[in-house]
Structures are given as C-alpha cells and as structure tokens.
Amino acid sequence: MKTISSLLSGDFSAKTCLVRVDYNCPLEQGKITDTTRIDRTIDGLKILLEAGFRLRLCSHLGRPKGQVKPEFSLQPVADYLAQVFGVPVPLVSPDIADADIPEEPSIILLENLRFFAGEETNDAGFGAKLARFGEIYINDAFSCAHRAHASTHAVASMLPAYAGALLDAEVSALNTVLEAPVRPVVAVVGGAKVSTKLAVLNHLVQKTDHILLGGGMANTFALARGFEMGASLAEPEMLDIVKEIKASAHQSGCVIHLPIDGIVAEQFAANAASRQLMLSDGLASTEMMLDIGPQTLASFGQVIDSAKTVLWNGPMGAFELAGFATGTFSLAQHVATATADGLVSVAGGGDTVAALNGAGVAAEFSYVSLAGGAFLEWIEGKILPGIEALEG
Length: 392
Known about the structure:
The chain has helices spanning about 5-10, 35-50, 75-85, 115-120, 125-130, 165-180, 200-205, 215-225, 240-250, 295-305, 325-340, 350-360, 375-380, 385-390; strands at about 15-20, 25-30, 30, 55-60, 90, 105-110, 135-140, 160-165, 185-190, 210-215, 255, 260-265, 275-280, 290, 310-315, 345-350, 365-370. By secondary structure, it is of the alpha/beta class.
C-alpha cells in the first residue's frame, strides 16, 4: 500500500483529498454518545491539514438502505468536527452539482453515503460522483475495508489512492501478530460459536503457538473431549469439525488450551446463584458454564507469561452479566500487565473492545482495533477488497 507518508514526502500539486473515514457513531436523540471512531482519525487528519491539504471526508452511518432518513444524517458529526478543528465544517450531499462543489473550506463532510443505493452496490457511477470531490483518495477506514463499496473500492481506481494513518496503523498492528511476530504467539479466542469463527480458528492454528479458548466455543471443544456440559451453549453438530481443527493444530505445532474449571449457574442472569467446578466432574443437566474458573485463569496466565505476542478476539464468558466477568476481566488485566513488561498485545472485535473497556485496560494494550468484520476477516486470512484497492 501507498501510505500518506509517501504522499507527504512527494511533490504533489494536488491538494484536495477525498478521505474515507468510519464515523458510524452511536447516536441518541441527535447527539453522539461515543466519539471514539472520530477521535481515532483526528491526528492523521491534522497531519494532512498542516501539510496544506484540503479534506473532503466521507462516511456511512447506520443502515438507511439507500434512502434519505434524517435520523441517520451526519450533521451531528459535522458539528463535532467543527468543535474539534475550530472551523466550520459544511455538510454537503455527494449528489451536488459540479458547479456547487465547495472549493475553499479546509474541511467538508459528505452526507451519509448510504443514503445512496450506489454506495453498497459498488456502483462506478456513484464512485465517479465521489471522485469529483478530490484529486487524491485516502482510505482511513480499515473497519470498512472488508466491503467492496463505492467509497472503499470503485473510487480507489479513479484517483491516486493511499492508506490513511489509522488504516496503516491497523494493518501494521495485525501484520505484527500474524505475519512477522515475535514468538511465542498466543491467540486468546472467545465467543459464542465455533461455527462463526471456524475460518478464524483454522487460520490461527497455522499462525500461532498457543490458542486459549473461552466462551461457547470452548464448551463445544469440551464436549468433543467427552465432558458433560449440561445446558451450556454449545454446538454438538460441530464435533467432527472440532476434531479436524485439533488435528490441524497438532500437525502445525499449535497447542489448544481449554478451560479446566468454570463458574456455572442454572440461570443466564446477572448475579445468578453459581458455583465453581472442575469440567472433568461434569455439569448437571440444568447448569450452564458462564465464566472460566480460577484454575483456568492461573493456567492461561502462565501461557501468557511465556508469550512475546498476544492476539485477542472474544470474551472468556458472559462478561456482560454481573457475577460472570471475573475470568475475562482478570485475563485482560494479566495481558495488560505483561504488555507493560514488553509483550506485544493486539485486540479487536466489538465484544472484545467492550470487554477490555469493562476491565479498564483497553488503553494498556499495544493496539486495540475498533473494526469488527474487517478484523475477523483479516485474521481469517482473507483478502480485503478495500485494502486490495490500495495496492499498486
């Protein structure tokens, strides 16, 4: 990929950049409730502004499905950007006539791209409309790079294309753990189902030295080992697949670690009555495993202590329920402590970010990606169309 570093070091007469960002922020009553996605782009945008570039930012928000819906307008984002940069930030329709495209403001924001059906269909005509706003295209939205949309794919072939600072940082962080890691490499993988992360697991057993499993997928692996998992979330129909993953891991020299004890309850509810048990003892038919236990935490911690690189995706249990967050939060804190001592730790995915925030350690990891689908597809080994479009 060409990055903005090469752009800034070149002699370019072109000074207007169309920048694809991901400002898909949560809104309540027209107010942004979490500005993290915007804030992560600001430093990179300031670098471009200070170099004399004019910025034409574009993003989607929500799922208006090709229709103009006022509740999905990016006006609150334009207002927030105006506060951050201290200049007016006009909100302009991508469908505006050529003669009406503003030239002078240092920053403009295009209205929600998904108001236009051509965005999600990767329509070349809509891509050409976007291309009118810049002489250079910059993609700074890694979280949207797994989608071949007009603003991430079609337009990239119409203008000189570069990776923005945030996208470059995301790709560099993931390459650090998957392509050129310092070993041993440990993957912490949680979540509800093996079926949703089958490709992830198949790829990671080829790339890592250890995998620590938690959540519902660990229950399925425990079933395959012959443990009684009671009413726990599990996928008995995936047992043959689990055996194939284990065989592939063995062949690759990757060790898959399962919980050895857990916190179980009969109700999926906050502060439900619970008990600790060894998985080898088996759960009662009415019990669910909702968190890893202290012995598992100690065992997983020892594996982390032996690592040089950690990749984390998914919680260890039902961390969103009071009384069942200890395993996830404590392991996250363990990784954060090790990071302070030199461990490289990269995490990503929606539930993962929420868990690390809940544990109060997100800022202590080496890198935390805000991407969901793009993060998963990258660690599955897929080629992302938005990244491929920047390679030349």
